[in-house]
Amino acid sequence: MKLSQIVPNKIDNNLLKKIFFSINKEKYDNADYIIVYGCHIKSLLDERLIHVLSIVENKKYSKIVLTGGIGVNGDFNESEYMRDYLIEKGIDEGRIIIENKSTTTEENNLNVLKMLSLNSIQQKTNIVLVTQEVHMTRIILHWKKIINNKNIKFYYDYVDKSTISYEKVINNSYLLKLLKKQVEKTIKFIKEGKYVDIDID
């Protein structure tokens, strides 16, 4: 079954797990770019930043790209908050690239695509995407729609033991309701041509 064929009122926990919590992590040794996604909730951003620090301690990398401006529900600039956090932890500011205008995941991707001229890169380039696993599916579906360069290899390196893990989401009625809305939004974006469609079986 295609993701776009899901009937919203028939979404169960097993389906949510297939869509949002079944992302494979591939091994990698180096990253040309580590892209860290913004969020208007600082505790979730901190999870991502702690994970980034663990990556740079163990992997070779060239640049860290921090994305996010002031979102619709936010009151601070997400990428600038992340920059200050990483610099305080000893990351060289010269290795940080800021994308501080976007307000959505899709704008994150589009602005980074343009800033780094990713569709024009002619050498093999490894890009590591960092967020929580629950957020990764939307990011992937959008990148698959807008990227057109076989030289780009994406790796998905999400936060381990997040406060919004599968187990915690399905046991929290509020989070569960939010996630089901994310399914509806994802289906809508697929039908509008903003995301690619995928098989979920």
Describe the protein's architecture and organization:
There is one protein chain. The chain has 201 residues and is an alpha/beta fold. It has a domain at 26-163: 3-Layer(aba) Sandwich (Rossmann fold). The protein contains 7 helices and 5 strands, in the order H-E-H-E-H-E-H-E-H-E-H-H. Strand 1 (30-36), helix 2 (42-58) and strand 2 form a beta-alpha-beta unit. The model has no long low-confidence stretch (mean pLDDT 95).
What are the defining features of this structure?
201 residues, alpha/beta, Rossmann fold, 7 helices, 5 strands, 15% strand
**Low-confidence parts, pLDDT < 50 over ≥5 residues?**
none
Q: What is the CATH superfamily label of the domain at 26-163?
A: HUPs
- The number of helical runs is 7
Taken as a percent bin, the fraction of beta residues is: 5-15%
**Residue share in helices?**
40-55%
| Distance from first to last alpha carbon | 6 Å
Which structural category do the helix and sheet elements fall into?
A: alpha/beta
Major sheet details: 5 strands, parallel
**How are strands sequenced across the largest beta sheet?**
3-2-1-4-5
Task: Please specify the SSE layout and strand pairing.
Blueprint: H1 13-20, E1 30-36, H2 42-58, E2 60-67, H3 78-88, E3 96-99, H4 105-115, E4 125-130, H5 133-146, E5 152-156, H6 166-170, H7 173-191
Parallel strand pairs: 1-2, 1-4, 2-3, 4-5
Helix pairs in contact: 2-3, 4-5
